[in-house]
Amino acid sequence: MRKKIVAANWKSNLLADEAVSLARQICTSDIPKSAEIILLPPMPYLFQIAQMAGNTIQIGAQNCSMYPEGAYTGEVTARQLKSAGAKIILTGHSERRQLFSENNTVVKQKINRILDAGLSVMFCCGEPLEVRKEKKHIDLVHQQLEESLFHLGPEQFSQVIIAYEPVWAIGTGVVATPDEAQEMHAFIRSAIESRYGGAVAKSTAILYGGSVKPDNAPTLFACEDVDGALVGGASLNYNDFIKIAQAIHYHTHA
Ligand code: PGA
Predict the structure, then answer these.
(1) At what angle do helices 238-248 and 16-27 cross, to 10 degrees?
(2) Is 90 exposed, middle or buried (0-12, 13-18, 19+ CB in 10 A)?
(3) Is the terminal CB of the chain with fewer CB neighbours within 10 Å at N or C?
(4) Distance CA 119, CA 242 (A)
């Protein structure tokens, strides 16, 4: 059975004391153990939150350098993040693609650095609105997978979680319908099957992200190929995040 995952992407929100106290609340809540919780705090607090979390939940980073150690002022490497307690690193997020000019090649390099460091990858893909309007969303996501991810061997690929995040749904309050999410998730799983075979496709977790809230989470999680959520805005609110994490408990797909 695939892992069920609910991940919190706090982005550039929360000051140190706020982040630590929200993380503490989440770590000590009685979320059903059938779902794995991943917190992606801002980097300066990652070490402290990872120490506090211990083995209760996984802590990860929202980004890392595309370079290894060396003279890259201001950059933080995947190995440094691992040494601070990160278990997983997000890459390919549309905000990084749009605001920081990260293309598929940069994302591919980051994925290589993350796996070299012995960490897991959460790979984000998804199409802007104009691409969906042209009905080219499947093609675009396919290209993102091909150009950033499908160079990996099967063993490396087993360390990858995918998050489908339509750009038009991120932070907008406009969530994909269950049919729209399911269509893309099923496509992603079929692309993984063509590249890595059925067993790998079946075991890969594919999360949905983009305006996930407590009221829309249950119908999204009911979709056959939706294995959880990457939550931005609603993850900043303890009650909302816990409700979303609880919603996954009731949906277990093969
Ligand atoms: P949102 O963000 O839940 O605020 O739409 C999701 C994300 O960017 O990961």
Answers:
(1) 30
(2) buried
(3) C
(4) 26
pLDDT-above-70 percentage for the chain: 98
Residue among 251, 244, 237 nearest 217 (CA): 244
Residue 4 is encoded by which pair of tokens? 């069920």
- Name the stretches of the chain with pLDDT < 50: 254
Instruction: Let me know if 253 is a catalytic residue.
Output: no
Q: Distance between CA 186 and CA 105 in Å, rounded?
A: 25
Query: What's the DSSP call for residue 114?
Result: H
The single-letter code of the amino acid at 41 is P
Number of H helices, E strands in the chain: 12, 8
Which of 160, 247, 161 is closest to 212 using CA atoms? Answer: 247
Cα separation of 165 and 49, whole Å? 26
Atom of ligand 1 nearest to the CA of 170: 5
- Strand 35-40 with 58-61, pairing: parallel
| Contact call for residues 173 and 212 (beta carbons, < 8 A) | no
What pLDDT score was predicted for residue 254?
45
Question: What is the distance between the alpha carbons of residues 170 and 70, in angstroms, rounded to a whole number?
Answer: 34
Q: Which of 36, 93, 95, 251 is catalytic?
A: 93
- β-bridge partners, 121: 89, 160
How deeply is 104 buried, as exposed, middle or buried, from its count of CB atoms within 10 A (0-12, 13-18, 19+)? middle
